[in-house]
Predict the 3D structure of the following.
Amino acid sequence: MNVALSSDPAPRVRPFVEGDADRWDAFVKAHPDGTFFHLSGWRRVLERALGHRTRYLVAERAGRLSGVLPLGRIRSLLFGDSLVSTPFCVYGGILADDDVTRAALAASARELAENLRVDYLELRHRERMLPDWPCKDLYVTFRKEISPDPEVNLKAIPRRQRAMIRKGISNGLVGEVDPNPERLYRIYSESVRNLGTPVFPKRLFRTLREEFGDACEMLTVSSGDAAVASVMSFYFRDEVLPYYGGGLAAARDLAANDFLYWDLMRRAAERGVRIYDYGRSKREVGSYRFKKHWGFEPQPLYYECHLVKARAIPEVNPLNPKYRLMVETWKKLPLWLSRIVGPPIARNLG
């Protein structure tokens, strides 16, 4: 992070307006800490697909952008009232050119949270930005450089996991890029139901595809004529991030999930991707161990919070004993019913 010179004008923080989108995205793409989740398109996704109010902030110095902060408000009777950067995303906190701008954006976000009287404000960072704020110690991310050579990437995967990938290959599995999210949604909705998690509305996946185009891609794996695993991935600069994915019950015996993420890695490397971002996991859960088996090492995430009405950082996640009965009950729901009642709940999980 750069330090602003004493002669620089103080940054002015103001709300995002529609005419800011191109400048905002250019700033995000040029900033070394910019992520896919900082892009302005998420504002429209949050509003149109999930029905949440956004409060994006822009910092300027002498008419030049020096920082951005995407914020969304999640109001729920079940899960409380929060202001988050960025809801439903792994990353998306303060992006600033210097410490003064970072401090100005943090202060503006804190003031906004106080004025709105939310329970808390949460800024999601890959590095500790606000050491005086309380911080969640729950999530890690998995990121790793990959080679342009598929064989190098395959050999870098630990032997036992590599054997699972080869099993998927020997089972004749085939990966195919999907033009629409229909197969993805059918597979993903069943997969999350089996985990006891409500599924997002189908319009979320359609809106993401409409908003981000080829930077949002669905890859589906089939065994014969049957689709068994699928993932929606995000491409940003030289990175790929598999984000919404799952497999049917048949996927386990076929090693289809293993093949799916390998096929994505292979395809991404061929198009010039150099960072494979396996995304967020809670510590020591199944997805955490799965990613470690691929040779990825966990890196801590810093979800820094300013408490307004809340007395402590809320634990809105399936590991909270408060939600254990809900999770176990959800696993037993008929699939058709979970697709109806799930989206109104999932849209408030944030």
Summary: The mean pLDDT is 93. The two ends are 28 Å apart (CA to CA). The chain is about 35% helix and 25% strand.
